[in-house]
Amino acid sequence: MKPVKASRSAPPPARTEGYSWPELYPLVTTCLRSGISVLLRGHPGVGKSALAASLADDFGLPLVDIRLAQRDPADLCGVWFPDRETKQLSVYPPSWAVEASKRPCLLFLDEINAAVTKLHQAAAYQIVLERRVGELRLHPETVVLAAGNLEEDEAIVTPLSSALSNRFAHFIMRVDADAWLRWAREVGLEASICAYVERHGAEVLYAPAGGEPAFPTPRSWEMASRLLLASDEGAHRRLVAACVGLSASERFFAWRRIYGQVKVERLLQQGQKMDFRTGKSADPSFVYAVTYAVGTWLGGGGELTDAQLPNVTKFLRSPGLDVEYGFLCLRQLRRNSDLFLRLRVLPEFRAFAAEVVALQPSIQDFSHAN
Questions:
Q1: How confident is the model at residue 190 (pLDDT cuts 50, 70, 90)?
Q2: What is the pLDDT of residues 3-56, one digit of tens each?
Q3: Which among 151, 162, 174, 335 has the fewest CB atoms less than 10 Å away?
Q4: In the chain, what are the domain boundaries?
Q5: Which of the residue ranges 11-15, 117-121, 154-158 would you say has the lowest mean pLDDT?
Q6: What is the pLDDT at residue 313?
């Protein structure tokens, strides 16, 4: 039998490693708008619940969040009772089902494979397949999104029955540091946490527990950020360790110590010179910390007089500072559009931006700076 050649128009194969948030969003949206229920699996804290909330907001629907592992089966299928008048069994439906029958909603069945019983799965099957709870029909415009853990997450996972599994479109959400960082900057997460994740990527954004009850996830880093911003320096280490675990916390604060040594005002407002070619200044962690700190300060609304503006290009052309680091700084700077427009007036800044684009032709962010 001859092998069949793939058509040029054939879609790419599904990726077993999963999809990032930006990749998943339109896919899940299409499924739900087409009346197809979705089962989304991913590591704990990767953003499955946040995706459900965002979808509900975009759809203009109330979110009905049901965590199956925390519910009695009666909370899903209702309570049966004998009706003396009809001499038959009738059912009291749960309140969420009454809501989902009267008006459209996004029904989120979380923890669907987290050690749930066969009764839980039977109730979920009725909800997903028959669109009802007992005799109560869900509103025809109600959409169903389910979520669960991955088998490798060291969590107790109950395999779904083939009948129930076959009623879903299946997607895996992977850890995506770039997507998380874009969100983190938008909501104003603590700067050193953003710098740390951008420096080390997904390997520090999500790390399996390794025996500790607390461990790094996108969710636990967001928790740590809130606590850093709300507490005094003396409590920082203990609070961060409580969120991401002791070992991850120690590595973060080793990085943060370097990050804290950067005096951005001296570089940009006083024009202090930097040389990244020798000694401790040549250490990649230090170079990254300085570059990210400068970019964060500029992008976050740092103020410079017209006389101080040339100090930005002066820093970007520091000896030993590769163009990749310069691009990192420019990418952060672009968030401060007023400052960026002021810098574009300077010939030396336009020349540097042109060099970045020339050396990295796939990057178009600064092409208009010429």
A1: very high
A2: 333 333 444 434 447 899 999 999 999 999 999 999 999 988 899 999 999 999
A3: 162
A4: 21-173, 261-369
A5: 11-15
A6: 93
Query: In angstroms, rounded to a whole number, what is the distance separating the alpha carbons of residues 32 and 101?
Result: 17
Mean pLDDT, residues 111-121? 74
| 90/94 Cα distance (integer angstroms) | 13
Residue 130: which of 146, 142, 112, 119 has the closest Cα? 142
- Of residues 159, 105, 95, 161, the one with CA closest to residue 131: 105
Spatial contact of 129 and 45, defined as CB atoms under 8 Å apart: no
Helix (H) or strand (E) holding 38: strand 38-42
Structural tokens at position 254:
């080793």
Q: How far, CA to CA in Å, does 44 sit from each of 32, 152, 174, 300, 312?
A: 23, 11, 11, 31, 41
Angstrom distance (rounded) from CA 184 to CA 180:
6
Q: Residue 154's pLDDT is what?
A: 58
Reading the block at residue 354, the tokens are 């042109």
DSSP state of 211: T
Question: Order of strands, edge to edge, in the sheet holding 169-173?
Answer: 63-67, 106-110, 143-148, 38-42, 169-173
Query: Do 297 and 335 contact (CB within 8 A), yes or no?
Result: no
pTM of this structure? 0.73
What integer is the mean pLDDT of 81-99? 76
Region 21-173: CATH code = 3.40.50.300
What is the overall mean pLDDT for the chain? 84
Euclidean distance between CA atoms 160 and 113, whole angstroms = 7
Half-sphere exposure of 85 (CA within 13 A, CB side): 1
- What is the Cα gyration radius of the chain? 26
**DSSP run (H or E) holding 30:** helix 21-33
